[in-house]
Amino acid sequence: MSHSWVEVPKSEYGRQLWDKNNVHKNQNGSIRVFSKFIPKNSTEITQDILYTMDIDCSENSFKDIAVGATEFNEFTNKDSKWKDPNGDRLIIGVINQVCNFRKDGNVP
Question: Which residue ranges in the chain fall short of pLDDT 70?
Answer without folding.
Answer: 1, 42-46
